[in-house]
Amino acid sequence: AEQASAEAEARAAALAAELSAARSAAAPAFAAAVAGELQGLGMGDGEFEVELSEREPGPSGTDAVAFLARPNPGLPFAPAAETASGGELSRIALALRAVAHSAAGEPTVVFDEIDAGIGGRTAHAVADALARLAERAQILTITHLPQIASAAGAHFRVEKVPGDPTHTRIERLSESDRSDELERMLGGAEFLSTVRTRP
After folding, report:
1. Over the stretch 15-26, which tens digit does the pLDDT of each residue have?
2. φ, ψ for residue 140 (rounded to 5)?
3. For the chain, how are helix, strand and coil distributed in percent, rounded to 5?
């Protein structure tokens, strides 16, 4: 039993070393690819690094992996999970998924309000990134932003219906209903009319 245990430990150590070597080799190119995606998502220079450090052996080897970002020039690199804002985290998650997915081959990816905390041009950039990812997978996105919704191939409206109990209704919108819904998401006809008539 002792020999079997020693052999198993040696095999686990060898696999962990092999995994560490693969991670070290892949980290620079992965970080560069994510940085490229972040630039397109309006995050400045998109500076992003992958930091590997040693930890106690576990199911995924002996590496602790940290994603470091520098959202603003002049600041030090810091763990994205600790320092990035909600909108920045959303874009980092999208960039990570876009890069990782190219090799993962997942058939469906779900984004639950990945556009939180963003708007304007950045929202359009996120919509474009989602559209690029949708060329390789089915993308389901829950959003409150019309910029994101307008880029979808199909638009479903989800709403709560009062009752006892309250229930949820979901329906696929026709093109005309979709236009009405996008207008509502933009603030409604009255708001849009006010914006258009301002000097």
Report:
1. 999 999 999 999
2. -110, 125
3. 50, 25, 25
Q: Are 32 and 20 in contact (CB under 8 A)?
A: no
Provide the 3-class DSSP secondary structure of residue 126: helix
**Residue 115: both structure tokens together:** 């556009």
What is the reported pLDDT for 15? 94
Instruction: Say how many CA atoms lie within 13 Å of 111 toward its Cβ.
Output: 30
Name the phi and psi angles at 129, rounded to 5: -65, -40
Task: Report d(CA 170, CA 193) in Å as an integer.
Answer: 29
Predicted TM-score (pTM) of the model is 0.73
DSSP 91-104: HHHHHHHHHHHHHH
**Residue entry with tokens 């990570």:** 96
Kindly indicate the confidence band of residue 102, based on its pLDDT and cuts at 50, 70 and 90: low
What is the C-alpha to C-alpha distance for residues 139 and 152, in angstroms, rounded to an integer? 9
Token pair listed for 111: 């984004």
